Description:
The protein is built from four helices and no strands. By secondary structure, it is mainly α.
Amino acid sequence: xxxxxxxxxxxxxxxxxxxxxxxxxxxxxxxxxxxxxxxxxxxxxxxxxxxxxxxxxxxxxxxxxxxxxxxxxxxxxxxxxxxxxxxxxxxxxxxxxxxxx
Length: 101
């Protein structure tokens, strides 16, 4: 039996991959804007319970490896910390939108 491509599992997996690609690009920009490097990103990431090593992150940043969504989110938070420390008002992770009353 052939799997239906409109299944919710397929859609959420594609959305997760798209989100990961977006975070990957934003992380590259964050590192380019700041004086921080990949090792600095890894230290910040590891400090907030990141479980991957620097080689895993390098492989993900270059598109050679996929990461779990939770680890991508932690990398985004770590990049946010580095951006904030550099004085940038930019974020890698999406900020919640609060509707106007």
